[in-house]
Design goal:
The protein is an alpha/beta fold. The protein folds into four domains: 115 residues, Rossmann fold, CATH 3.40.50.2300; 165 residues, Rossmann fold (3-Layer(aba) Sandwich); 69 residues, Helicase, Ruva Protein, domain 3; 78 residues, Arc Repressor Mutant, subunit A (Orthogonal Bundle), CATH 1.10.10. 45% of the residues lie in helices and 12% in strands. The strands form four sheets. Strands 2-1-3-4-5 form a five-stranded parallel beta sheet, with helices on both faces. The longest helix is centred in the C-terminal third of the chain and has 16 residues. It starts with a strand and ends with a helix. The structure holds adenosine-5'-triphosphate (ATP) and magnesium ion (MG). Magnesium ion binds next to helix 7.
């Protein structure tokens, strides 16, 4: 196998010497540079698979070099080595396109781990509309591609929190399969009352119930040959679960009011944000159906566990909404990205998508304006923990501090709506404004920088 070519830029001779030795020992091919400018020159000659860039260097520092290198090749793979262990530096590096950063001093094992992790990652890509850079999502997509190589997709169960991309993954499975030309029929099992859901899925004969004036085909018949996507499968009631189990096992069912079996050949993808094994334990979901569905489980991880995806996803959504609204938002400044990286994303990708949409619509220039972020994210960013309102006393907090914190919390919870914040605090709007003035909270930028 060809050796991986690493370009190492560090102004410290001893670091260059010892790192090169360690890397060569492990069968990497290493070239070195003494500063950023040299690194850019070396890189531009081609022949580099991965760059290790020291952050602080004379002539041209690591960050500048990184930007220059990204101009040459957007996909350049870079690990930043830094002596400052602060979020600021990390954010700058990641924002400029570094794949990882390592704080000095580090062990060689730590560096090797990072290198291995990066080179097995696919570049942030967009197979079937699914954007990701994280190893976790790469794992999900590997599983998807394994599933779709076969002619027949077995039953697949996709689990994950709301907004993690379950629908998208279901679509990717169908579109990657040989059935992609055949119907993909989607139904939200939580959106219909039980009897309607049954007739939607299985169809009915004329006269099966009062409103059944004509015979109707169900989705399983309509999708014959293709895929049925049963979203929110956890909402299906017990008696319908039995019918579904039979369909999966025997590929047969009867229409409502029907007396003959109908055979269909459909692939079934089910999704849920419920914990199904928990539902089984509570006897709300049939155990046999659960095991039948759970042959190939796919779990889409929450965004907070794959924060590397935040940047590529943000870019993706900026592109989408720039086109849609004919805007030109190009940049997410470091201070905004820092908040995005620190947030824990209960609404996952959907929440990020909404924030970027708002940013595209409301930013005046090409740069994402920080005051567009929802108040809740800003509060979290200034280290103010959410507590039952009103905030509890902690030792050492002055009255002024408490007042300020309560204002911040109320403004955050009300998304900056002053009337609502005033009501929450049980004071008049003028009183609120007086106090906001006192604490310099009018410009929401100061809300963010407050600590
Ligand atoms: N990896 C991704 N790349 C691009 N867009 C994504 C990705 N994941 C999710 N999205 C987008 O985020 C939004 C939410 O995704 P989706 O509807 O698939 O989530 P879900 O898990 O089905 O949510 P719910 O449980 O609420 O049904 C959609 O607009 C989807 O296109
Ligand atoms: Mg969904």
């Amino acid at each position: 196998m060809e050796k991986l070519k690493i370009l190492l830029a560090d102004d410290d001779e001893l670091t260059r010497f010892s790192l090169e030795k360690e890397l060569v020992k492990r069968n990497y091919e290493v070239s070195t540079a003494e500063n950023g400018r040299e690194a850019v020159m070396c890189y531009s000659q081609g022949n580099t698979d991965l760059l290790l860039l020291d952050y602080t260097m004379p002539v041209m520092d690591g960050l500048e070099a990184l930007c220059e290198i990204k101009k040459i090749n957007k996909e350049a793979v870079v690990i930043m080595l830094t002596a400052n262990n602060d979020a600021e530096t990390a954010v700058k590096a990641l924002k400029a396109g570094a794949h990882d950063y390592i704080v000095k001093p580090f062990s060689i094992d730590k560096l090797l781990g990072s290198i291995k992790n990066i080179i097995k990652q696919p570049p942030a890509g967009l197979p079937a509309g699914v954007v990701y850079r994280s190893e976790q999502m790469a794992g999900v997509m590997r599983l998807v591609s394994q599933i779709v190589v076969g002619m027949d997709i077995p039953v697949v169960l996709i689990q994950g929190e709301t907004g993690t991309g379950k629908n998208l993954v279901a679509g990717a499975i169908h579109n990657g399969s040989e059935r992609r030309q055949l119907p993909f029929v989607e139904i939200n099992c939580g959106a219909l009352p039980d009897h309607l859901l049954e007739s939607e899925l299985f169809g009915h004969e004329k006269g099966a119930f009062t409103d059944a004036r004509a015979q109707k085909k169900g989705l399983f018949e309509i999708a014959d040959g293709g895929t049925v996507f049963l979203d929110e499968i956890g909402e299906i009631k017990m008696d319908l679960q039995i019918k579904l189990l039979r369909l999966i096992e025997e590929k047969k069912f009867r229409r409502l009011g029907g007396t003959v079996d109908i055979s269909v050949d459909v692939n079934i993808i089910a999704a849920t944000n419920k914990n199904l094994s928990e539902a089984v334990r509570k006897k709300e979901f049939r155990e046999d159906l659960y095991y039948r569905l759970n042959v190939i489980p796919i779990t889409v991880p929450p965004l907070r566990e794959r924060k590397e995806d935040i940047m590529p996803l943000s870019r993706h959504f900026m592109d989408i909404f720039n086109k849609k609204f004919n805007r030109n938002l190009q940049d997410i400044p470091g201070e905004v990205l820092k908040i995005l990286l620190e947030h824990d994303w209960p609404g996952n990708i959907r929440e990020l998508r909404n924030i970027i949409e708002k940013g595209v619509l409301l930013s005046a220039g090409p740069s994402f304006e920080i005051n567009i972020l929802p108040g809740e994210l800003m509060l979290r960013a200034c280290g103010f923990k959410k507590e039952p309102f009103p905030g509890s006393l902690s030792s050492g907090s002055s009255l002024d501090e408490m007042e300020r914190n309560m204002l911040l919390q109320a403004l955050g919870d009300s998304n900056g709506n002053q009337s609502r914040a005033a009501r929450m605090l049980n004071i008049g709007r003028d009183a609120l404004r007086r106090r906001m003035k006192k604490h310099d909270l009018f410009d929401s930028r100061s809300v963010v920088s407050a600590n």
